[in-house]
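Hi there, hope your week has been kind to you so far. Thanks so much in advance, here it is.
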Amino acid sequence: MKVAVLDIKGKETGRKVDLSKDVFAIEPNEHAIYLDVKQYLAHQRQGTHKAKERAEIAGSTRKIKKQKGTGTARAGSIKSPIFRGGGRIFGPRPKDYTQKLNKNVKRLARKSALTLKSKDKALLVVEDFNFEAPKTKDFKAFLASLGIENKKSLIVLGDSNNNVYLSSRNLERSEVITSSELSTYKIVNAGNVVLTESALEGIESNLKK
């Protein structure tokens, strides 16, 4: 499948690249996408939530009232969960939310997500570019030339480029990453995916394994 290569102004350069059928034209596996996105979101959780239980509460251990004759329920400790300031029953404890996922499933998920973007015509290829200095104005002009200034966009570079990254940092709906940072979640979460030529080479070589 051939796709026209655009320049930084959104115009066709006259060149076309052939997208690999093994990466951009497979039979999408939506369950693999679900598993990979689920793992990604699970890994964002710190798992440091903690509430004190009755054994961890600072307080007196004396029996707070006599056993009988008060007309109320017996009580032995001020740290009991039924009293204000007492411990919490079955409170949250620190937990590791990481999940394991087979490498082949993750690779299949990324290829499936890229295939769906390609089918939806939400995948663009541009030649490698750079800015002379970090300027949000220049990056916004770049997005406007591609017609995606008002959409969620993911720009994938072959190698890290500080000027391009800093130019995009103030834009909430746009994200710049390198091909090695590409994940299924980022692909699915973006409305449009823009690949530079060097990023395309890296993605294809990585996902064809």
Observations:
- The chain has seven helices and six strands.
- The chain has a mean pLDDT of 93.
- The beta strands are 2-6, 12-18, 123-126, 153-157, 174-178, 192-196.
